[in-house]
Design brief:
Elements (H helix, E strand, L loop, with lengths): L1 H17 L6 H30 L6 H34 L4 H4 L2 H29 L6 H25 L2 H22 L1
Helix pairs in contact: 1-2, 1-6, 1-7, 2-3, 2-6, 3-5
């Protein structure tokens, strides 16, 4: 599932960056969401897979704090980027004639930057303090299932939910793979 998550999100980033027709605010935010999803899953899954491979459940306190920090950072970024995407769609639907004026490239970059800065400032101190001071007791099976759903399944489904049902992304991917096949045949000659 981890490889599907990374590969699916990389495909979205590749499709959006390679097709000039997809250089619009919606796809700019979508490519940022895909990048954050890759970072989000890469925060915990490689360590988890390594622990499964060596059959160990040990993590140092420092590694745990770092992992939780980045997990919360990227989870917050996901939330803020989804909010920015919702605002983008709101403007597109409610103010279609002013859409390109309101959602110009500068505003889009600022919205993404504000998402990053806001999340860093919100979670930098508070999330670590809350996590470290938490003494709640949970069932390990329930926690493991919830963690797996949140850290692997949701980011894995995002490319399918947000993109692969989208005709523009499908066309961009087909064009990209067609171009890659042409380049490959030229190199092989």
């Amino acid at each position: 599932m981890y490889l599907i998550t990374v590969f699916g999100n990389l495909l979205i980033i590749l499709a959006i960056s390679s097709d000039s027709h997809l250089h619009t605010p919606m796809y700019f935010f979508l490519s940022n969401l895909s990048f954050v999803d890759i970072c989000f899953t890469s925060t915990t899954i490689p360590k988890m897979l390594w622990n499964i491979y060596i059959q160990s459940q040990v993590i140092t306190y420092e590694d745990c704090i770092i992992e939780v920090y980045f997990l919360m950072l990227f989870a917050g970024l996901d939330d803020f980027l989804l909010t920015v995407m919702a605002y983008d769609r709101f403007v597109a639907i409610c103010h279609p004639l002013y859409y390109m004026v309101i959602m110009n490239p500068k505003v889009c970059r600022i919205l993404v930057l504000v998402s990053w800065v806001t999340v860093v400032s919100l979670f930098y101190c508070t999330s670590l303090g809350v996590y470290v001071s938490s003494a709640a007791i949970h069932s390990s099976q329930t926690s493991a299932t919830a963690s797996m759903m949140y850290t692997v399944v949701t980011p894995m489904l995002n490319p399918f939910i947000y993109s692969l049902r989208n005709g523009d992304i499908k066309r961009a991917l087909k064009a990209f793979f067609r171009m890659a096949a042409i380049k490959r045949t030229l190199v092989l000659r």
